[in-house]
Amino acid sequence: MEVRLERLSKHFGSVVAVDDLTLHIKSGEFVALLGPSGCGKTTTLLMLAGIYRPTGGEIWFGDRLVNDVLPKDRNIGMVFQSYALYPHMTVFENITFPLKLKKVPKEVMREKAQRVADMMQIGHLMDRRPAQLSGGQQQRVALARALVKEPDILLFDEPLSNLDAKLRLTMRGEIKRLQHDLDITSIYVTHDQVEAMTMADRIAVLRDGRLQAFATPDELYNRPRNLFVAGFIGSPPMNFLNARLTAQNGQAIVEGNGFRITLPEDLGRKALSQAQREEVIYGIRPEHIRLDPDGEVEAEIYVIEPLGREDLLDCRLPDGTLLGVLVPSGHGVKIGEKVRLKFQLDHSQLFDPHTEQSLLWN
Amino acid sequence: MAEHAGSRIGQIILGIIVLLLSMPLLVMYIWLVESAFSQITYGIIPQGFTLSNWRFLWEGFTNMPSIWRITWNTLVFAVVVATIEVFIASLTGYALSRMKFPGRRMFLSLTLVLHAFPAVTLLIAIFYVLLVLGLYDTLVGVIMVKAALELPLGVWIMKGFFDNISWDMEMSALIDGCSRLRTWWEILLPNIRPGIAALSIFAFLSGWSEFLLPYIYTSSFENFTLSVLLRRLVGDFRFVDYGLLTATGLYYMMPVLLFFIFTQEYLLNIYAGGTKGTTV
Ligand SMILES: Nc1ncnc2c1ncn2[C@@H]1O[C@H](COP(=O)(O)OP(=O)(O)OP(=O)(O)O)[C@@H](O)[C@H]1O
Ligand SMILES: [Mg+2]
């Protein structure tokens, strides 16, 4: 089912939770809504579910305008962060509840419930009550309940955030696989960017109720359209340096406190044609910086954070700015040591400090 | 170990204090029971075991309907009051907890004020209302008045219970295909069973022991409740038959005691384990 949000907004009194949101989601697509706490993700989801009535704008399921359609008539499956299981019902009753309401015959109901339960590997827990299940099992029951009515659209509101790290990883894979197999249009709310990047076909990044970007994980990572997206996507986050952009001998030069680099030709041309002023914000990801005696930037190691396979070095530039650098462990440098850093210049990002828009990708 | 011993001694001291404090109460109850089964008592010392104080059970009272009729009245009064109260309070509590509507805040503060309002000041006004409605000296009339006066507190209690149920569960039910009313009935009510049980019990007990309202708003013998009957036994012009009085009192008290013993266990049960795992 194709889902379209057209200029959707939601106000709670004077609070604008969602502001002029337009999203076109393709049939069968897995879309993540990503953003910091309070940016309006849940509100958007609940409008899709029909719990909240939009203040403005339209929601289309296929060619049906659903603004005034009741939740029960939308054929949606939803998984909540709290699981929202019914504590007074057994697992079987929980799973079959949506079918019971549809007056599905008992036999069919039993068969369908058993099938989803087996798919979710909870077939043996049918007679338990939610209180007698572990968090992961409750999560599976919630998923089974959402799936059993064969919904047109699946909504997830941070379904994994109550699980421990390992289980979260497993479930992440399982949900993605399930969605792929069943081919149900899915909208997945999360504030965990790794989750969004690994699971979604496309990610909608929200901030204060406004859409910042709607693109594939790859595009968000490599071609962020604005400063917020650049800083929000990627872990450890992108480094930002204040700099000046000038043209010298037909080359684009980025110059800041203690560093001076020449942009690759194509990036330089784009940047120069877009830039409205000399000041820019130069961005480079920690994984795109190397330790190299021939590097163009001099810095001092301030802190070393081992991450296992890699170490994150916080390097201090002469003007005091800290720069994150991700290097394979076994580099041998120590705190206080002077090093030289080499940027992978084709991964450079440039932003206008006033509009916060990218000078490269708009 | 020392700590354990300390807490043991503390408990004993606490027990003694509680015992001393409840002594007067205890003595009164002992006297009540003794007196109901003896011909006469000197202070707290009973004299001469007898069952004749209980003859009202088969002989009835002079000039009054049978004790069974009066008991039935009391039972109907308490049960109907409790039913009305629980039913209305659980609907109103739901609306106040879950819905936004104009005047909600005012309604809430009004129920609080009404609850704090001394009902006695309304007695005369209510009397006229009942008179006009033709409900004076009917059980129905008194039941309505009692339920109305008890409702504000009931509504608040139920609202509190609804407030404690997560929105997620309700939203989930709506998405699963429930109407709002069905969600209330199938999802919310089963999860506030402790609240409903508690309110029913308190409403029933309060109805069973209500004296003022039936005393004022009924006058015919056939509408008497047990509390009014007791009042008659003390207040009649003849000398007070303490044996009869205490026996009737004990009789009046017994169902409540039994009820309390059983429901208390039930209440403890649901509070201790029944709702474990409720998503909050
Ligand atoms: N029912 C409501 N009444 C009033 N304000 C609300 C309501 N629901 C949400 N808001 C406000 O709307 C904004 C967006 O809330 P929302 O719950 O959508 O955030 P979120 O992105 O889901 O955040 P989180 O990641 O913390 O769950 C917040 O500022 C919140 O305070
Ligand atoms: Mg949320």
The CATH H-level homologous superfamily of chain B:
MetI-like
Strand order of the largest sheet of chain B: 1-2
Ends apart, CA distance between termini of chain B:
39 Å
Query: What's the shape of chain B?
Result: globular
Average pLDDT level of chain B: 85
Kindly provide the name of the CATH class of chain B: Mainly Alpha
Q: Write down the CATH topology of chain B.
A: MetI-like fold
Share of helical residues of chain B: over 70%
Low-confidence stretches of chain B: 272-280
How widely separated are the two ends of chain A? 30 Å
Portion in strands of chain A: 25-35%
User: Stretches of chain A where pLDDT falls below 50 for ≥5 residues?
Assistant: none
Assembly type of the chains comes to heterodimer
Describe the structure.
- Chain A is α+β, with helices and mostly antiparallel strands.
- Chain A is 26% helix and 34% strand.
- Chain A has nine helices and 20 strands.
- In chain A, the strands form four sheets. Chain A has a six-stranded mixed β-sheet, sandwiched between helices. In chain A, strands 13-12-11-14-20 form a five-stranded antiparallel β-sheet. A five-stranded antiparallel β-sheet of chain A has the order 15-19-16-17-18, with no helix packed on it.
- Chain A is elongated and about 80 Å long.
- Chain A starts with a strand and ends in an 11-residue tail after the last strand.
- By secondary structure, chain B is mainly alpha-helical.
- Chain B has one domain: Orthogonal Bundle (MetI-like fold).
- In chain B, 74% of the residues lie in helices and 4% in strands.
- Chain B has a two-stranded antiparallel ribbon with strand order 1-2.
- Chain B is globular, with a radius of gyration of 24 Å.
- The two termini of chain B are 39 Å apart.
- Classes of the chains: A alpha+beta (362), B mainly alpha (280).
- The site of adenosine-5'-triphosphate (ATP) has 12 residues of chain A, from strand 2 and helix 1.
